[in-house]
């Protein structure tokens, strides 16, 4: 009857991550690719099961957070486009005071909850839009809500000269492999810039898919991330960790 007959059942198994062995996630086997789970089909009204894989950008960002726990320790952390929850789990392990993981896919919320429990940490998993998660009160598309920082000035300093994030809002915003398609770039960029303007520190992990607006970011770390060839058509992706630029 067509490609639907050739779908691989979504049956993830708990396994440690190549770059972040401290964390184990329920993931698909390494010989399974994303579209094996959909029978080669894509329906715009049916989210792809990104949560069933540990993407390179998420692994690199999780590695950075665990290696630099001072980034999140004692802070409110928001993980956007959370997928499996690897970045959120890393933040919780590194001592974040509060961790929320946001994804548009309800299945991702269930995956984050399951993975967090498997790693013995607490993460609040939420189904929602990235921009609204950063600031539910933000108007419109956010393109003209504040001026960009001047020379030598950060977004956080522009919004809050004393260096604090908005009271109650996220103090650190993380996004692993969130720039995976040109379709998501405008909304994700607006969300991250909005977070930075509110005083949050903003970090992303990106394996060079070509969609990250690099002119807005500065690279602060780089990792060679082992990945399944069935997923990425290579077995290694050199992946950067980027921080929203300061000028």
UniProtKB/TrEMBL annotation:
Annotated keywords: Methyltransferase, Transferase
Biological process according to GO: methylation
Domain of life: Bacteria
Region (Disordered): 130-168
Gene3D superfamilies to which the protein is assigned, alphabetical: Vaccinia Virus protein VP39 (3.40.50.150)
GO molecular function, one term: protein-lysine N-methyltransferase activity
Basic and acidic residues bias spans: 155-165
Name of the protein in question: Putative nicotinamide N-methyase
High-level lineage: Bacteria, Bacillati, Actinomycetota, Actinomycetes, Micromonosporales
């Amino acid at each position: 009857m067509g490609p639907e007959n050739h779908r691989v059942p979504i049956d993830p198994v708990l396994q440690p991550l190549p770059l972040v062995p401290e964390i184990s996630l329920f993931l698909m086997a390494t010989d399974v690719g994303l579209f094996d789970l959909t029978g080669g089909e894509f329906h715009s009204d049916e989210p792809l099961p990104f949560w069933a894989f540990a993407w390179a950008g998420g692994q690199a960002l999780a590695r950075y957070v665990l290696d630099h726990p001072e980034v999140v320790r004692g802070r409110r952390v928001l993980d956007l486009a959370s997928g499996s929850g690897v970045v959120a789990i890393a933040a919780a392990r590194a001592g974040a005071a509060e961790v929320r993981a946001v994804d548009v896919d309800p299945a991702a919320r269930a995956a984050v909850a399951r993975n967090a429990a498997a790693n013995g940490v607490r993460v609040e998993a939420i189904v929602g839009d990235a921009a609204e998660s950063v600031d539910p009160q933000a108007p419109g598309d956010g393109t003209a809500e504040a001026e960009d920082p001047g020379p030598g000035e950060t977004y956080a300093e522009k919004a809050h000269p004393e260096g604090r994030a908005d009271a109650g809002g996220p103090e650190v915003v993380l996004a692993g492999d969130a720039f995976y398609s040109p379709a998501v770039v405008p909304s994700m960029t607006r969300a991250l810039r909005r977070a930075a303007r509110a005083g949050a520190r903003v970090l992303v992990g990106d394996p060079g898919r070509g969609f990250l607006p690099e002119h807005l970011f500065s690279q602060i770390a780089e990792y060679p991330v082992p990945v399944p060839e069935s997923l990425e058509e290579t077995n290694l992706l050199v992946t950067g960790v980027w921080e929203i630029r300061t000028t």
